[in-house]
Prior knowledge:
Number of strands of chain A: 11
Order of helices and strands of chain A: EHEEHEHEEEEHEEEH
Oligomer: heterodimer
Structural class of chain B: alpha+beta
Distance between the termini of chain A: 13 Å
Structural class of chain A: alpha/beta
CATH superfamily of chain B: Phosphoribosylformylglycinamidine synthase subunit PurS
Number of helices of chain B: 2
CATH architecture of chain A: 3-Layer(aba) Sandwich
Distance between the termini of chain B: 11 Å
Amino acid sequence: MKIGVVTFPGSLDDVDARRAVTFGGNEAVALWHGDHDLQGVDAVVLPGGFSYGDYLRCGAISRFAPVMTEVIEAAAKGMPVLGICNGFQILCESHLLPGALIRNDHRKFNCVDQRLRIERVDTPWTSAYTAGQEVTIVLKNGEGGYVADEATLDMLEGEGRVVARYLDDNPNGSLRDIAGISNERGNVVGLMPHPEHAVEALCGPGTDGLGFFTSLAAATFA
Amino acid sequence: MARYVVDVMPKPEILDPQGKAVLRALPRLGFAGVVEVRQGKRFEVEIEGDATPESLAEVQQMAETLLSNPVIEDFEVRTA
């Protein structure tokens, strides 16, 4: 499968994401924020970083980048889209996912190996995991507090759309310990922690993040 | 030139960590009795031509789509 990774001005983890895509058994395609072109990819990753310097609000300006017109259109048709960290913020700003991400409640940038529970496994990004599986992957953010109104939170829980939840201490004040969510269909997933930094034993906390990148390949051959 | 001001504030129920940081700093500077600080943003927008209901509506639309995120923020538009 061809998985595009968008580079915005200020993206940091686009190269790591492409590497993780390759490790996951897929072909990584570099996409450019300024192009109205998805180059025929089967899925898209919006990587972490500080696109447009986080000016205005995180993800607020990227949401209107030329390539996002195509991403939003393709997502509506069911193309798998994974937003990691800043990518999650962009997906919320694009209204592809409900809610928003605000500054960590403790006001400090956080960089930790974070334990998570994977809760929704019928998405193209998480099918390699088992429901309830506990994993450890890197979390690094300054504005990772997930917020939404009570009705939205209840809807996400009720429809089983919480993809991952923080275990142990809540690292950023996210409501109901939410680390990641999906749209109704499950093709669009936003995740605050960084699975692309946990795909090799050599660096990072292990290889627990690899599943986000092997899930798509598994789906293709299923 | 039509001039508008857009004030954007975090919704009352949304945590405002920056406002909290300012609130905590004030007593250290000797400002006593401050019970709450909320931090927002102010945009000054200039538009060609005179202020008209149309240009006001346009600024409203800017505020809704880009200047604020209605999930977490409220905004107010006024002529400057």
